[in-house]
UniProtKB/TrEMBL annotation:
Family annotation (Pfam families): Glycos_transf_1
UniProt-recorded name of the protein: Selenoneine biosynthesis selenosugar synthase SenB
Species this protein is from: Marinobacter sp. MMG032
Matching CDD domains: GT4_PimA-like
Gene3D superfamilies attached to this UniProt entry: Glycogen Phosphorylase B (3.40.50.2000)
InterPro entries recorded: Glyco_trans_1, Glycosyltransferase_G1, Glycosyltransferase_put
Length: 328
């Protein structure tokens, strides 16, 4: 099939939407499809359109549906679509969700948080990541005695990016924990907040935006990853951590629970640095707890392989074509 994939993230962007679009292009090409990734859609013909982001891609979605009313349309829902935009901008967001022939949700609990009538056209897709063979060996340095904790993602409100840093202020004085945060500041305010925290908190370092190789090295050097988001559509960094065998301490939001499962042992209440500090201290001082988390992410790793993500994309395409033919 000739597919057009719309993403609001421009070429070269390190935004998650762009990485997802490029990965899906590769997976769909592997399945025999011809895929073009665009940031704007002007009505050009294709066999089906896949739009990343119901709200940000609403203009492209409307244009496609009005120009090609009988062709399959797939809309992938992001965290901000589900947990913010459908409430803040309901007309545009719900239009996109309603006119889609198939919806893609990026974690297993999305059906609970969208209008009930839409669940029948929802396909759950777990974003994939490369396996442990793609990660380097840990670096040995003068601070090898430290207990490394990584936080990966752009610094912004939705990510609650400094929660791990705040938690380290509550640790015992003899703790070896150091939090390294990698990601671009969303705006000047976040840059100032990160720089101020770094100046005041010796356990915290902000590394800025890293390329893929340096990000993987950071993960390899870490004993634990923290994902503290207040809203998340299904963060690919969780997939990467599971595939790398890196234990995760995660806020107990649907976007994390929908990836790691209700029985995962590393959750803390969203926004609660006291609870996170307790988990960090336990991870550092209780080898059994850390081993349990490592075992759990190891078992989850199979969920996030490329072959399964490709199969889910094909499932979404098949569902969209089926529902499209039923509309005719």
């Amino acid at each position: 099939m000739r597919l057009i994939l719309v993403t609001p993230a421009k070429p070269g962007s390190k935004a998650g939407n762009r990485a997802t679009a490029e990965r899906w292009k590769t997976l769909l090409a592997n399945a025999g499809h011809s895929v073009r990734v665009v940031t704007e859609y002007d009505g050009e013909p294709c066999d089906a359109l896949i739009a990343l982001h119901a709200w940000r891609s609403a203009g492209a979605i409307r244009r496609f549906r009005e120009t090609w009313p009988e062709k399959p349309l797939i809309v992938a829902l992001t965290g901000t679509d589900i947990y913010h935009h459908q409430h803040e901008y309901p007309e545009q967001t719900l239009y996109s969700m309603n006119v889609a022939d198939a919806l893609i949700g990026l974690h297993g609990l999305v059906a609970d948080d969208i209008p009930a009538g839409l669940a029948e056209k929802l396909v759950t897709l777990y974003q994939s990541a490369e396996g442990p063979e793609s990660f380097p060996e840990p670096e040995m340095d003068s601070k090898s005695n430290r207990f490394g904790v990584c936080v990966i993602g752009h610094l912004r409100h939705e990510k609650d990016s400094l929660r791990a840093a705040y938690a380290t202020r509550l640790l015992p004085g003899d703790s070896r924990i150091e939090v390294l945060c990698a990601g671009k500041a969303h705006n000047d305010e976040w840059q100032r907040k990160a720089e101020r925290e770094m100046a005041e908190n010796l356990r915290f370092r902000w590394l800025g935006e890293l390329d893929q190789a340096d990000t993987r090295q950071l993960m390899a050097n870490s004993q634990v990853m923290v994902i503290s988001s207040i809203m998340e559509g299904g963060a690919n960094v969780v997939s990467e951590a599971c595939r790398a065998g890196l234990p995760v301490l995660a806020s107990d939001i649907p976007g994390n629970v929908g990836l790691l499962g209700r029985d995962y042992g590393g959750y803390f209440p969203v926004g609660n640095e006291e609870a996170l500090a307790d988990l960090l201290n336990r991870a550092e001082t209780d080898p059994g707890f850390l081993a349990t988390l490592t075992q759990q992410v190891g078992k989850l790793a199979e969920r996030f392989i490329p072959e399964k993500e490709q199969a889910s994309l094909e499932q979404a395409l098949q569902l969209a074509m089926q529902r499209c033919s039923e509309r005719r």
